[in-house]
Design goal:
The complex is a heterodimer. By secondary structure, chain A is of the alpha+beta class. Chain A contains four helices and nine strands, in the order βββαβββββααβα. Chain B is globular. Classes of the chains: A alpha+beta, B alpha+beta.
Chain lengths: 131, 379
């Protein structure tokens, strides 16, 4: 399976991505994550203004079969949530890196162990081989 | 990756790009493309399922009917050859060991079609009950019962959806148009002898095809070939959509709605309990339960507030636990988040507002009528 791994974003081992620009971080789930989950039918997002630490729950994404927690890849304050996902959670399947973004966070600090596209891709391929 | 049992169609599933996962010790296709797309295909067109993991047990002999009358709650005496019935099989306390289909193949020969995950347990239970019956038989009694596990040599496909009949008719020597619901025929499918019944687990019209295991891939491939040639849009359907389809039709799933601790009365299956029969295993306990009244009932509910109920989530009313979700999902045809669950009998009425505890939050729901989905029967 060929997944997309854009170069300009950072990844977590839990399959979130973050694009940080001038202190503002956009967070979503990866192409691999949406594919593994299958048809996404429900998204729960945090409150705007909520403060989060690295690894805190940012919300929940549910497919027909699975419930998956989203973990914060940075600390900071939630500035915006993608309300389009509430009515159309399928956006996450169709465009995980663009229209399917989850939240925007005013970043205080990024997680220590964020992966580059190359490292994340390696992680997925390695997992596939072990599988 | 698990190293479970594989059906004869495993390589077909892999070629079709299926997501494979363990189900009751079998490596089964969960989805090929998308659970939701597969679900809609069965509601509007036709879908083909590999359900060869299901178990088949043959019960034959002059005493076969009497034996089955004792282990099943439904009445088999009124079945004619060519008929199928659904029945729970209970333990002595009225708990459900399994729910199964019984096919009357001949006057003295039946097939039991049982859940894959229960097959070994069922086989053991049936043999125990048979040994017990033989122990209590009078001298000179010539009645016989023979049990045979024919699961290994039996492949099973389910062809389901409003276009199923049109498609299957193209490869069947027997006409299927007049085959009634819960009846079967022996037919020949492109040179392969098969038993075809008008049954299924989706809430749609459809058929189940019992085929010698080595011939199953041939029939699977042929159905797609014919389906494509006719432009019927046949799609392969995995166990994921099988679950959402049966869920919308409120067909119970063993391990969820049904367990050895649940009785047919609690699960709303009293219709399949033949009280008029002399005796059957569990009758005394079930009669007692009917007399005393049941404490919990299986209900269906829709979410009023945002959230998806999932198996095991608590059901709450006035801050107190009243039961538990047994199955829950986004229902693709209905377009709502729905659930099935047990609640205490006094709360089990339509329009009752209840709450589902989802990640420690109480989320509002409302009890509604079952089934959630019922197909329109064409006149």
């Amino acid at each position: 399976m060929n997944y997309q791994y854009p170069d300009n974003i950072k990844y977590t081992k839990e399959h979130e991505w973050i694009l940080e620009k001038e202190g503002s971080g956009t967070v979503g789930i990866t192409d691999y994550a949406q594919h593994s989950l299958g048809d996404i039918v429900f998204v729960e997002l945090p409150e705007v203004g909520q403060k989060v630490k690295v690894g805190d729950s940012l919300g929940v994404v549910e497919s027909v079969k699975a419930v998956s927690d989203i973990y914060a890849p940075c600390s900071g304050t939630v500035r915006m949530v993608n309300e389009n996902l509430l009515a159309d959670p399928g956006l996450l399947n169709d465009n995980p890196y663009t229209a399917g973004w989850l939240v925007e966070i005013e970043v205080e600090e990024l997680a220590d162990k964020l992966l580059s596209a190359k490292e994340y891709r390696f992680l997925i391929l390695e997992g596939a081989e072990e599988g | 990756m698990s190293t479970g049992k594989r059906t004869s169609l495993y390589s077909q599933h892999v070629k079709l790009g299926a997501k494979i996962a363990d189900f009751a010790g079998w490596e089964m296709p969960i989805q090929y493309q998308s659970i939701i797309k597969e679900h809609h295909a069965v509601r509007t067109g036709a879908g083909l399922f590999d359900v060869s993991h299901m178990g088949e047990i043959e019960v034959s002999g002059t005493d076969a009917q009497n034996f089955l009358q004792k282990v099943c709650t439904n009445d088999l005496a009124r079945m004619s050859v060519g008929q199928v019935i659904y029945t729970p099989m209970c333990n002595f306390t009225g708990g459900i060991i399994d729910d199964l289909l019984v096919y009357r193949i001949k006057q003295d020969q039946f097939w039991l079609v049982v859940n894959a995950g229960n097959k070994d347990k069922d086989w053991e239970w049936l043999n125990e009950q048979l040994a017990d019956a033989q122990l209590h038989r009078g001298a000179g009694d010539e009645q016989t019962v023979e049990l045979r596990d024919i699961s290994e040599k039996t492949g099973l496909l389910a062809l389901q959806g409003p276009l199923a009949q049109q498609l299957l008719a193209k490869i069947s020597t027997e006409s299927l148009e007049n085959l009634r619901y819960y009846h079967f025929v022996f037919t020949n499918l492109v040179g392969v002898d098969a038993l075809v019944s008008r049954t299924g687990y989706t809430g749609e019209d459809g058929f189940e095809l019992y085929i010698p295991v080595e011939k199953t891939p041939l029939i699977w491939d042929k159905l797609f070939e014919v389906g494509n040639a006719l432009g019927l849009g046949l799609v392969p359907v995995g166990l994921g959509a099988r679950d959402t389809l049966r869920f919308e039709a409120c067909l119970p799933l063993y391990g969820h709605e049904l367990t050895s601790k649940v009785t047919p009365l609690e699960a709303g299956l009293e219709y399949f309990v033949a009280w008029q029969k002399d005796d059957f295993i569990g009758k005394t306990a079930l009669l007692k339960q009917k007399e005393v009244g049941i404490f919990r009932k299986l209900v269906g509910f829709t979410m009023i507030e945002r959230g998806i109920p999932r198996a095991g989530y608590p059901l709450i009313k006035n801050g107190e636990s009243i039961g538990e979700v047994t199955s829950g999902s986004f229902a693709p045809t209905i377009g709502q988040n729905l659930g099935l669950g047990f609640v205490s009998s006094k709360e089990a009425f339509v329009d009752n507002d209840i709450y589902v505890s989802i990640r420690e939050k109480e989320v509002k729901a409302k009890i509604i009528k079952k089934p959630f989905y019922k197909r329109e029967v064409k006149k």
